[in-house]
Amino acid sequence: MKGRDLAKRAAELRRLLERANYAYYGLDRPEMSDAEYDRLFRELRDLEARHPELRTADSPTLRVGAEPATAFKKHRHLVPMLSLANAFDAAELGAWEDRNARLAPEVREAGCTLEVKIDGAAVSLTYDDGVFVTGATRGNGLEGEDVTANLRTVLDVPLRLAGKGWPKKMEVRGEVYLSKSRFEKLNREREQAGEPVFANPRNAAAGALRQLDPKITRSRRLRIFCFHIEAPGQKVAIETQHELLRRLAEWGFPVEPHYQLVRDLSHAHAAIAKLEQLLPTLDYGADGVVVKVNRRALHAELGTVGDREPRWAVARKFAPEVQVTKLQQIDINVGRTGALNPYAVLEPVEIGGVTVSTATLHNFELIKAKDIREGDLVEVTRAGEVIPQVLGPVVKKGVRRKSPYRPPAECPVCGSTVEHPEDEVAVYCPNVSCPARILEGIVHFASRGAMDIRSLGYERVRALLNAKLIHDVADLYDRNQLNLLQLLTLEGFAEKSAQQLLDAVDSSKRQPLSTLLFALGIRHIGWQGARLLARHFGEMGRLRAAKQEEIAAIRGVGPAIAAAVAGFFNDPKNRRLLDRLKRLGLRMDEPTAGPGGEGPLTGQTYVITGTLPSLSRTRAAELVEAAGGHVSDSVSRNTTALVVGADAGSKLDKARALGVPLIDEAELLRRAHSKR
Ligand code: IVH
Looking at the chain, which terminus has fewer C-beta neighbours within 10 angstroms, N or C? Predict the structure, then answer.
């Protein structure tokens, strides 16, 4: 074939494959057999391999997943990505319209669209001349992460738009989600592989979107629904939201099919009630109905509240479903810190389309305060897909109940007498050798936020402990304890999986001190505390030698943390464990931020005022300090810049008077993360 014919064939293959994708994913009406699809796909892939000049940004071959990245680039949204205000009942919805009518009286007659509110991860897709060029997460609303390679693997994201009339450059907003059925399948597989399960489809989707390896994202099979566009500075001849949704579908975007137009709010209420019934039956998580003013001209007129939410849309949320069922018994799980966590074993009950048979009871004080007893009928809820919880007993007059619940005086696993620190609600098993604590501790040590030893989850840790191949975390690294031959004697290990596990263990030796400190599971030490300690002392030896007062004097470290850390390092058992970890080759120091231990903000002082769009004050301060900078409470001539959030106070006036530069959160993030 000649060059021109090859280019034509490549274009044809792209079109055929994308059409097949759309029919399969967008319409749920496959038009092509899998074998035929594979044949065309291979043809295009080979063609592109031989003639790289034929590769295009919209080629379906890119959907297979690019090479893993080491980090995501930042992506600044053309227009901020907003969130939505909530309305929990008809009256709040009415108040929303009343407020809008004061700004633009026409809203009452403009009609409203009702859309299912998808509960996933918000994304923005940029199209340039109808070709998908960039995809980003929401991030802080102004700036997200560039996850283009991952979004290309989402098979119903159109790579090239169909139809006509799309703005030359536009950002399409949508929600990436994982179907409930996929979520359950994925969790079953993870459980079998000993990997931690996802708490809910939303977390699973957000996690998949932020994988550095697009092949992992692809394997999760994310989906998307789109509902909004931004095309600043361009004329868009689409008058209503209802029409926009129709056009989005024409252009090839998946649009949640239950959207509808109602004449006014009085018609909305009945339609919303119907949708409320529908939501739990859908195969995707939906956490409400979005009500939008239909006429787009009014969107511009009504505008937004800060950079936070549009006035022209509101999320109608529903009170979480509550069901009554029998509390069969109260069981206890012992966590890695030794905390005894009571939970309810329930007669299975369906809540929001899911069968619930256990629910958390939080702590013993709550059980007492609510007088929850075994055998009671209890109200159970599952708010926003989180772990089900028991709200309280339903006590009927004349029904005999069991006697009040008595918290155990001994650890249900090892029998040690429990301790109840005065200033805490939690009750602890004090025995560091308690089998439950050891199991949970090792699982935590290996978990993703800690040493990140892939494929070492509950089931495997339990198997290794039961087979006595390990007794503590140091044994994982000790090849006299744990080696290939021994792993192969265990069920569920083949040569490849065993070697993979050992490799993952070995590569975790390179984790920095902060990660190791967090992984050790010292009471009160979260990842932030671990980082403060690691940055201050730089290396394990110095931290071990430090006095409690010295630890307590570190900015951001309180007396409780200092006492816990000192206590941990004073314990001979822990000292022996650390000596062993060191001998086994684990890294015991913290990389410094820049040359000479400095960060990009060294020598700079920032003051923060007002509410920042995504960071809490504490988090923002931590960020500055982690980058070597300093945070002060008052503005002076020495202030490098004032970070301004919403509703800024008098600091803003003072900064203006002194000529101190003003920056926003996005700028702060950029500076703190910049390389010097
Ligand atoms: S409209 C300017 N419509 O909910 C556009 N949002 O809690 C504002 N969401 O950030 C959003 N389904 O990610 C809109 N049909 C829908 C939606 C929807 C899901 C998400 C979206 C938004 C979040 C706000």
Answer: N
Centroid of ligand 1 to alpha carbon of 287 (angstroms)? 11
Q: Is the pLDDT of residue 581 over 80?
A: yes
Say if residue 337 is in the same domain as residue 202.
no
pLDDT at position 24 over 90:
no
Ligand 1 and 228: CB distance under 6 A: yes
Give me ligand 1 centre to Cα 141, in Å: 12
Statement to judge: residues 538 and 476 lie in one domain: no
Q: Which of 74, 117, 169, 235 is catalytic?
A: 117
Q: Is 117 a catalytic residue?
A: yes
Q: Give the residue, 196 or 39, on which the prediction is more confident.
A: 39
Q: How far is the CA of 117 from the centre of ligand 1 (A)?
A: 7
Statement: residue 295 has pLDDT above 80: yes
Cβ of 663: how many Cβ atoms within 10 Å?
17
Sheet containing 662-663: give its strands across.
630-632, 605-609, 641-644, 662-663
Rounded to the nearest whole angstrom, what is the distance from the C-alpha of residue 75 to the centroid of ligand 1? Answer: 19
Global pTM value: 0.57
- The pLDDT score that the predictor gives to residue 595 is 36
* DSSP state at residue 263: S
Find the mean pLDDT for residues 295-322: 91
CA distances from 77 to 70, 140, 206, 512, 612 (A): 22, 10, 18, 33, 17
| Ligand 1 touching residue 82 (CB < 6 A) | yes
Residue 41: C-alpha distances to residues 25, 37, 62, 220, 348 (Å): 16, 6, 11, 21, 47
Distance CA 261, CA 401 (A): 52
- Burial environment of residue 203 by CB neighbours within 10 A (0 to 12, 13 to 18, 19 or more): middle
- Residue 118 Cβ inside 6 Å of ligand 1? The answer reads yes
Q: Domain residues for 141? A: 76-317
469 and 504 co-located in one domain: yes
In this prediction, residues 133-149 reach a mean pLDDT of 93
> Is residue 311 over pLDDT 90?
yes
Q: How far is the CA of 615 from the centre of ligand 1 (A)?
A: 20
Q: How many structural domains comprise the chain?
A: 6
Domain presence at residue 597: no
Residues 271 and 189 in one domain: yes
Task: Quote the pLDDT of residue 123.
Answer: 98
Query: Is 290 near ligand 1, meaning CB less than 6 Å away?
Result: yes
- Residue 316: CB within 6 Å of ligand 1? no
pLDDT exceeds 70 at position 285: yes
Minimum-distance ligand 1 atom for the alpha carbon of 230: 2
Which CATH number do you get for residue 534? 1.10.150.20
The lowest-confidence range among 304-318, 329-343, 347-361, 537-551 is 347-361
Distance from the CA of 275 to the center of ligand 1, in angstroms? Answer: 17
Ligand 1, atom 23: nearest CA belongs to which residue?
Answer: 83
Cβ 426 under 6 angstroms from ligand 1: no
Same domain, 553 and 503: no
Helices 435-446 + 458-466 axis angle, to 10? 130
Model pLDDT for residues 598-607, shown as the tens digit of each residue:
678 888 889 9
Quote the percentage of the chain above a pLDDT of 90.
59
Residue 133 lies in a domain: yes
Asked whether residue 540 carries a pLDDT value surpassing 90, the answer given is: yes
Read off the tokens for 171.
């950002």
Mutation probe of ligand 1 site: the residue of 77, 176, 241, 290 with most atoms within 8 A of C-beta: 290
Choose which residue among 173, 202, 255 to substitute to test ligand 1 binding: the one with the highest number of ligand atoms within 8 A of its C-beta: 173
Main-chain phi, psi angles of 289, to 5 degrees = -125, 130
Residues 257 and 166 grouped into a single domain: yes
From 288, 317, 346, give the residue that closes a domain.
317
242-251 pLDDT tens trace: 999 999 999 9
Q: Is 229 in the pocket of ligand 1 (CB under 6 A)?
A: no
